[in-house]
TrEMBL record:
Annotated Gene3D superfamilies: 3.30.230.10, 3.30.70.240, Elongation Factor G (Translational Gtpase), domain 3 (3.30.70.870), P-loop containing nucleotide triphosphate hydrolases (3.40.50.300), Translation factors (2.40.30.10)
Listed GO CC annotations: mitochondrial matrix
NCBIfam families recorded: small_GTP
Name of the protein: Ribosome-releasing factor 2, mitochondrial
Annotated Tr-type G domain residues: 68-353
Single annotated GO MF: GTPase activity
Coiled-coil parts of chain: none
Organism listed in the record: Rhinolophus ferrumequinum (Greater horseshoe bat)
C-alpha cells in the first residue's frame, strides 16, 4: 500500500511540471482506480484538492460579487426539450464539471436521484451555483412533467429571471404553455432558447412563429442559425453582426471562433443579418421610448452605425419590462450555442436589485427571506432552501418564522451544487441559501431576524397602508406570498408490510409531505387505511419507489382511484336539534340551514347568514359554525368525496346558555349533512386537457381510441410532419394510457396531460360508477 502511495506521489509531482496530455490523464485515472478504497472520490464534479486542480474550479472559489452581478435564474420547458442537458453544458463551460454528463447515461449533475437517472427525467428541482465572466449565477433546473408542476411553481416564486427552452422541431408544447403561464403569474422576465437545432425537422422560423402565436409573446431575434437539422453548424449574432462557428474537431464545444460577417465571404448571410438587425432595432424602438429617441435622433439615417452596447442596454430594459422576449438558438447535446446563452443570461436578465419588491422598504436592511423548498438528508436532517431578499445570513443565527410564530437557529449554512454542498461563512441579500437546523420551517414560510424586527416592519407597513388607504391585516402585509398548492387528482391506499412498521411509514410520509406539499396523506375514517393523494400516476409511483429506497420499507399500494367531487342540483332546507347532558351541564342547540348550488366554481362552501339570525349570536359562535359546515362538506353523501360549488345559509340558530362550541359545531355539521342528503346530487369528475403528438399514419387509430374513452376532440393541428390532437378526456378513462398509446403507434407518439376542471357526469356514467363503488357490478 505504501509503495502504491509513493508511486502515486511521484507521478503527481511529475504531472505538476508536465503538460497533462491524454496519456498522463489516463495514468492518473488508473492510479485513482487502484486507490479507490482509500481515496474518497465522490462524483466526477467534485475535485480532489491539488490533484487536477487546474482542470476544474472548486466550489470554494465561487465569487461573492455585488448584488448587481448576481443572477437568480430557472430553466423551464416541456418534458424532453433539453433543460437538464443545457444545465449540464452550462456547468461544464463555466468550469465546474470535468466532463459532459448525459441524461441517457444517467450521469448528469442535477438529476442525482436514482429515479431520475433510471427514467431520464427531472423529478426534483436542483439548485447549482457557479460564476461566469465576473457574474455569480444561482441556477435551478426544474422538471418538465405535469405531475411535478408545483416544483416549477415554487422555484419560479423566488427567481428573478428564467430561460424557456424549446425543442426547435416542436415549438411551443403543452407543458411549455403551463410553465409560461406560471412565469407570467410571478412576473418573471425570460429569454427563449431554441434547442435541438440539429434535430431532423428542426425549424427556426416555425418555432419563433409558435412563440408568437401560442404564447402571445413578441420574440426579439438576437441570433439566426447557420443551417438547420443536419446542416446546423453555428449561429449569427444579429446584434454585433458576427458569426459563431464551432470547431468540428472539438468534442466538447469549447473551441469556437467569432468572425465579423463580410461582404466578400458571406454576402447572403450578411444581407439576412442586416435585415434582421434593422427589424430588431425597429421592434425595440417601438417598445422602449428612450431607445426610440436615440434611434430617431442620431442614427435615423443609418442603423449600421448604432453601437451594439446601446442596443443591448435597450433589449435589457425591454426584457425587464416583459414586453418582449429575446430568442437565441443552439444545440445543447451537440455543444453549440451554450456560451452565447450564458452571455445573454448575464446581459439581459435582471439582477435582484432590478426587481421591485414592495415589502423590502419595511425591513430597512433587516433579514427577510422566503423558504421555498425542504429536503431531508439522512445525516444532516431537514435542509431548507431559502431566497434572501434583504439582510444577511450566518451560521448559528437565530431567525423568527412569521408563519409558524417560532424562533429557530441555523446551525450550518451551505452553498447548493445539486447533491453536493459546500459550507460557507455567510451569504448576503439576493442569493439562494441552503440551511441546516431549521426543524419547523416549511415551504412558503417567511423568515425574519427576530419577532421585534417583524413588529417594526408591520408598523411601517401599517403607516404605508394608511397613506394608501389599504385595509390589510398585520400578518398579511408581512407574509411573502407562498405558492398555491394544487388539489390532488389521484389517490390510492398504502399499507406497510406489517403493523409494527406503521410508525416508520408514518415518519416516511411525514418527511415526504414536508418535501413535497402537493402530496397529501389522509386516514380513511371507515377502513382506517392510510390514503396517498397525488398529482398523477407517475407522482404516486415515484413516492412509492422513494419510500422503498430511502426508508427501506416494502409498502403495498392499492389500486389507483380518481378524486371525484360532488355537488347538489337544487335548494333544500333542513333543521336539526342536538340535546345532550354531560355531567351536570345541558348542551342544547337548534339549527336551520339551507344548501343551494352556485354558478361560480368554488372548492370551499360559501357561507352566508340570513338576516333572521341575530348578529351577536352568530358572531360569538362563528368559528364553531364554520368548522361544522366545512367538516360536513368534506364527505358527500354519494361517494364520500368533497362537496363543491355549494352555498350554505344559516337561517336559525338557538343556543342554550352554557352550550360548548364543540356541540354547536357537531349540530351544524349534522344539519348540513341532512340537507345534502335530501338534495338531488351530482358527481363531478376531473376533466383533463390532452395533447397527443402522432404521425399521420397512426392518426386514425388514436382518434378511434380517444372516442372510446369519452374524449372530446377540439382541434387537430399540424406540426411539421406530425399531427397534434388537442381535446378533453375524463381522467378515469386515461389511466394507463401511455402503454396503450405506445402499442397503437409502435412507440412513435407522445402525449401530455393537464387538469382542466371538474365536469358533471352523465346520469348513465354516474349510475355505473355508483354501482361499481357499491360492489353491485
Amino acid at each position: 500500500m505504501l509503495s502504491s502511495l509513493r508511486i502515486f506521489a511521484v507521478n503527481h509531482k511529475k504531472m505538476s511540471r508536465l503538460h497533462i496530455n491524454s496519456m498522463y490523464y489516463s495514468k492518473i485515472r488508473a492510479s485513482l482506480k487502484r486507490l479507490k478504497p482509500h481515496v474518497p472520490l465522490g462524483r466526477n464534479y467534485s475535485s480532489l484538492p491539488g490533484l487536477i486542480g487546474n482542470d476544474i474550479k472548486s466550489l470554494h472559489s465561487i465569487i461573492n460579487p455585488p448584488v448587481a452581478k448576481i443572477r437568480n435564474i430557472g430553466i423551464m420547458a416541456h418534458i424532453d426539450a433539453g433543460k437538464t442537458t443545457t444545465t449540464e453544458r452550462i456547468l461544464y463551460y463555466s468550469g465546474y464539471t470535468r466532463s459532459l454528463g448525459d441524461v441517457d447515461d444517467g450521469d448528469t449533475v442535477t438529476d442525482f436521484m436514482a429515479q431520475e437517472r433510471e427514467r431520464g427525467i427531472t423529478i426534483q428541482s436542483a439548485a447549482v451555483t457557479f460564476d461566469w465572466k465576473g457574474y455569480r449565477v444561482n441556477l435551478i433546473d426544474t422538471p418538465g412533467h405535469v405531475d411535478f408542476t408545483l416544483e416549477v411553481e415554487r422555484c419560479l416564486r423566488v427567481l428573478d429571471g428564467a430561460v424557456a427552452v424549446f425543442d426547435a422541431s416542436a415549438g411551443v408544447e403543452a407543458q411549455t404553455l403551463t410553465v409560461w403561464r406560471q412565469a407570467d403569474k410571478h412576473k418573471i422576465p425570460r429569454i427563449c432558447f431554441l434547442n435541438k437545432m440539429d434535430k431532423t425537422g428542426a425549424s427556426f422560423n416555425y418555432a419563433v412563429e409558435s412563440i408568437r402565436q401560442k404564447l402571445k409573446a413578441k420574440p426579439l431575434l438576437l441570433q439566426l442559425p447557420i443551417g438547420e437539422a443536419k446542416t446546423f453548424k453555428g449561429v449569427v449574432d444579429v446584434v454585433s453582426k458576427e458569426k459563431l462557428l464551432w470547431n468540428l474537431n472539438s468534442d466538447d464545444g469549447k473551441d469556437f471562433e467569432r468572425k465579423p460577417l463580410l461582404e466578400m465571404s458571406d454576402p447572403k448571410l450578411l444581407k439576412e443579418t442586416t435585415e434582421a438587425r434593422n427589424a430588431l432595432i425597429e421592434q425595440v424602438a417601438d417598445l422602449d421610448d428612450e431607445f426610440a429617441e436615440l434611434v430617431l435622433g442620431e442614427f435615423s439615417e443609418n442603423f449600421d452605425l448604432l453601437p451594439a452596447e446601446k442596443l443591448q442596454t435597450a433589449i435589457h430594459r425591454v426584457t425587464l419590462a416583459q414586453t418582449a422576449v429575446p430568442v437565441l438558438c443552439g444545440s445543447a447535446l451537440k455543444n453549440k450555442g451554450v456560451q452565447p446563452l450564458l452571455d445573454a443570461i448575464t446581459m439581459y436578465l435582471p439582477s435582484p436589485e432590478e426587481r421591485n419588491y414592495d415589502f423590502l422598504q419595511w425591513y430597512k436592511g433587516d433579514l427577510c427571506a422566503l423558504a421555498f423548498k425542504v429536503l431531508h438528508d439522512k445525516q444532516r436532517g431537514p435542509l431548507v432552501f431559502m431566497r434572501i431578499y434583504s439582510g444577511m445570513i450566518k451560521p448559528q443565527l437565530a431567525i423568527h418564522n412569521i408563519n409558524g410564530n417560532c424562533t429557530e437557529r441555523i446551525s450550518r449554512l451551505l452553498l447548493p451544487f445539486a447533491d453536493q454542498h459546500v459550507e460557507i461563512p455567510s451569504l448576503t441579500a439576493g442569493n439562494i441559501a441552503l440551511t441546516v437546523g431549521l426543524k419547523h420551517t416549511a415551504t412558503g414560510d417567511t423568515l425574519v431576524s427576530s419577532k421585534s424586527s417583524a413588529l417594526a416592519a408591520a408598523r411601517r407597513a401599517e403607516r404605508e397602508g394608511e397613506k394608501k388607504h389599504r385595509q390589510n391585516s398585520e400578518a398579511e402585509r408581512l407574509l411573502l406570498a407562498g405558492v398555491e398548492i394544487p388539489e390532488p387528482v389521484f389517490f390510492c391506499t398504502i399499507e406497510p408490510p406489517s403493523v409494527s412498521k406503521q410508525p416508520d411509514l408514518d415518519h416516511a410520509l411525514k418527511c415526504l409531505q414536508r418535501e413535497d406539499p402537493s402530496l397529501k396523506v389522509r386516514l380513511d375514517p371507515d377502513s382506517g387505511q392510510t390514503v396517498l393523494c397525488g398529482m398523477g400516476e407517475l407522482h404516486i409511483e415515484i413516492i412509492h419507489d422513494r419510500i422503498k429506497r430511502e426508508y427501506g420499507l416494502e409498502t403495498y399500494l392499492g389500486p389507483l382511484q380518481v378524486a371525484y367531487r360532488e355537488t347538489i342540483l337544487n335548494s333544500v332546507r333542513a333543521t336539526d336539534t342536538l340535546d345532550r347532558t354531560l355531567g351536570d351541564k345541558r348542551h342544547l342547540v337548534t339549527v336551520e340551514v339551507e344548501a343551494k348550488p352556485i354558478e361560480a366554481s368554488s372548492g370551499a362552501p360559501v357561507i352566508e347568514y340570513a338576516d333572521s339570525v341575530s348578529e351577536d349570536i352568530w358572531k360569538a359562535s362563528q368559528e364553531a359554525i364554520e368548522n361544522g359546515i366545512h367538516s360536513a362538506c368534506l364527505q358527500g353523501p354519494l361517494l364520500g368525496s368533497p362537496i363543491q360549488d355549494v352555498a350554505i345559509t344559516l337561517h336559525s340558530l338557538i343556543i342554550h346558555p352554557g352550550t360548548s362550541s364543540t356541540m354547536i359545531s357537531a349540530c351544524v355539521s349534522r344539519c348540513v349533512q341532512k340537507a345534502l342528503k335530501k338534495a338531488d346530487k351530482q358527481v363531478l369528475e376531473p376533466l383533463m386537457n390532452l395533447e397527443v403528438t402522432v404521425t399521420r399514419d397512426y392518426l386514425s387509430p388514436v382518434l378511434a381510441d380517444l372516442a372510446q374513452r369519452r374524449g372530446n376532440i377540439q382541434e387537430i393541428q399540424t406540426r411539421q410532419d406530425n399531427r397534434v390532437v388537442i381535446g378533453f378526456v375524463p381522467l378515469a378513462e386515461i389511466m394507463g394510457y401511455s402503454t396503450v398509446l405506445r402499442t397503437l403507434t409502435s412507440g412513435s407518439a407522445a402525449f401530455a396531460l393537464e387538469l382542466s376542471n371538474y365536469q358533471a357526469m352523465s346520469p348513465q356514467d354516474q349510475s355505473t360508477l355508483l354501482s361499481r363503488r357499491s360492489g353491485l357490478t
